[in-house]
Amino acid sequence: MATYLEFENSIKQIDEDISGAKIKSDSHAVEILQKNLEKEIEKTYKNLSEYQKLQLARHPDRPYAIDYIRYLLKDSYEIHGDRAFRDDLAIVCYVGYIENRKVVVIGEQKGRGTKNKLKRNFGMPHPEGYRKALRVAKMAEKFDLPILFLIDTPGAYPGVGAEERGQSEAIARNLYEMSQLNTKTVSIVIGEGGSGGALAIGVSDRIAMMRYSVFSVISPEGCAAILWNDPAKQESATKAMKITSDDLMKLNLIDAIIDEPIMGAHRDKESAAKAISEYFMKSLEELDKMSDKERLSARYEKIISIGAYEER
Description:
Blueprint: H1 9-23, H2 27-46, H3 50-57, H4 65-72, E1 74-79, E2 91-98, E3 101-108, H5 113-119, H6 127-142, E4 147-153, H7 160-164, H8 167-180, E5 185-194, H9 195-199, E6 206-210, E7 214-216, H10 220-228, H11 234-241, H12 245-250, E8 256-258, H13 269-288, H14 292-304
Parallel strand pairs: 3-4, 4-5, 5-6, 5-7, 6-8
Antiparallel strand pairs: 1-2, 2-3
């Protein structure tokens, strides 16, 4: 059963009418309703608000990192553990082949259903998760394997245990190490890119966002709570924060927007995975033409160009 968001109610109604017409074997009605459905989809998705895009980024059926990994990778196997504390299941690391190229994929995984959400800590990594990601990234560097990072987290876990084990240090260490990593790297925001939890695997040669994804320094709920002392004002916060792919592209904070099916990646996961694969392979072709020195220099220039300031 498809899950419909509130702004999709008119689409849901037509879908239900089509199902009823099919039961009655009324092919003429089905044909008319299909045309109406196409028009309604185009009308609805042509003018999505920032908040509606946020809802799509958090859609419960949206593909997560492991969903994409299953579509993308051949002959894959998972790498576990940070070799210091434990295996954090909010971050997954795989080695395998995309087309005929051996690659490493590191992603943040939210989990579906209560049991899996708890197992994956709702996609909020502990410091050992970031240390695992760095360990695997260093392994990829050693064997000259390109890395695909799949970003999808509401943020790093803020619990007492995570802070005791050095959450901020782990994120800072990743920012430092990833900026100098001598292998080809591509990061893609597939859902939510929340604060340092996203940045810790977001320092790359190329960074892109799926069309209906978001990237922000804080969640809209958190922003609304701080600014207005009212988490219910998240819709206003979402608009003010400029967190959609279009916003970040205009601000030159990302390199590309990856198109997904018009109603969202969850409606056609295979097509969404294909779009990610095509962008990744195209990026590697461009990076292959650069020497290590040129690539690292370009990465450095991109990092220091973020933000604007003036001296007084």
